[in-house]
Design a protein that fits this description.
The structure is a single chain. About 40% of the residues lie in helices and about 25% in strands. It is of the alpha/beta class. Helix 1 crosses helix 2 and helix 2 packs across helix 3. The N and C termini lie far apart (about 55 Å).
Length: about 325
């Protein structure tokens, strides 16, 4: 029995609570993972998991040793990475989960720069809107707005995600420009279904705070679809500036209710406490923070034109 491979399999099954997912992460068959766990259980003389056809959960012994085993795997990978750094360039696979709103139009250049520096690191990038736990899902890090429910993660803020209301000039010509948040009741609204406030908007005016419950005619988890919906003169949409900036600057969309800014979120990178010393992850985080420190370029362009305030509402 290879003790390290067996312990690595144990950690991955414990984190994902799934033998098939652990096998996928390790790029081996499920039977290999099962065999390694069985060998480890035979070696320690007790079961590490209680498992049936529906669930996999840690035994008392498994709970007792999970943290130590997780730290052992993390430390071993760190040492190997450091040895590779001395003898050659960093190598291996880095699994990243990211939001499509951020990836499309903003991340390709950064990925190219990263791989130009570290050509032997293979990036495995999964793109969707889910707010997931990167540990359980087998990712090295996740770039997302809303935090997963886990105490075993470190978060690092990258940049604010500001939201604005936009519509096409043609739509506003036909239906009028809202002057007050309450005027939205007379408009067709396109809405991002992932906002934690559901269909409620809280506007922060200079003299008052206004809360409005909108009634969307379109709900979707795609901010890009909302942008295209607005470009079709179909209604007013609430979208982040990272997708609104280009069509606004081109005059294809117009921002409304700028005197009543909405609260902002933060796009953060989430990763496991046991991966904080991983060389590949460290290098990726360095490129991320260097590229997105300060005011994001899409916000900077709007601020210069007076379309967006420098002050962030949180």
């Amino acid at each position: 029995m290879d003790r390290f491979l067996a312990i690595d399999a144990f950690v991955r099954v414990a984190e994902s609570q799934n033998f098939a997912e652990a096998a996928r992460q390790m790029r081996v068959s499920r039977s290999v993972v099962t065999s390694r766990i069985q060998q480890l259980e035979e070696f320690v003389g007790a079961p590490l998991f209680h498992r049936n056809t529906r669930s996999v959960r840690l035994s008392d012994l498994g709970h007792s040793f999970l943290r130590d085993c997780t730290e052992l795997v993390g430390r071993t990978n760190e040492v190997v990475d450091q040895m590779r750094e001395v003898t050659t360039s960093p190598a291996g696979r880095l699994r990243v989960h990211a939001l499509p709103g951020f990836v499309l139009g903003h991340l390709a250049r950064l990925l190219h720069e990263f791989q130009a520096k570290y050509p032997q690191i293979v990036l495995d990038l999964v793109v969707n809107d889910a707010a997931l736990d990167p540990v359980k899902e087998g990712f090295d890090c996740a770039l997302q707005i809303f935090p997963p429910r886990s105490e075993e993660l470190i978060s690092r803020k990258l940049f604010p995600v500001r939201r604005v209301l936009c519509a096409s000039p043609e739509y506003l010509r036909r239906h009028g420009i809202p002057r007050n948040p309450r005027d939205l009741a007379g408009h067709r609204i396109g809405w991002y279904s992932g906002y934690p406030t559901r269909e409620r908007l809280i506007f922060h005016g200079a003299s008052e705070q206004v809360s409005v419950d909108v009634k969307p005619v379109l709900m979707t988890n795609s901010v890009h679809l909302l942008t295209e919906y607005a470009l079709e003169h179909a209604g007013i949409v609430c979208i982040p500036t990272l997708v609104a900036s280009d069509p606004v600057l081109a005059g294809r969309l117009k921002m409304v209710l700028q005197d009543f800014p909405l609260s902002s979120f933060w796009l953060s990178v989430f990763y496991s406490t046991t991966l904080r010393s991983s060389l590949k992850l460290k290098l990726f985080l360095e490129v991320l923070t260097d590229s997105f420190s300060g005011v994001p370029p899409w916000d900077e362009a709007l601020i210069k034109l007076g379309l967006l305030s420098e002050t962030i509402v949180e």
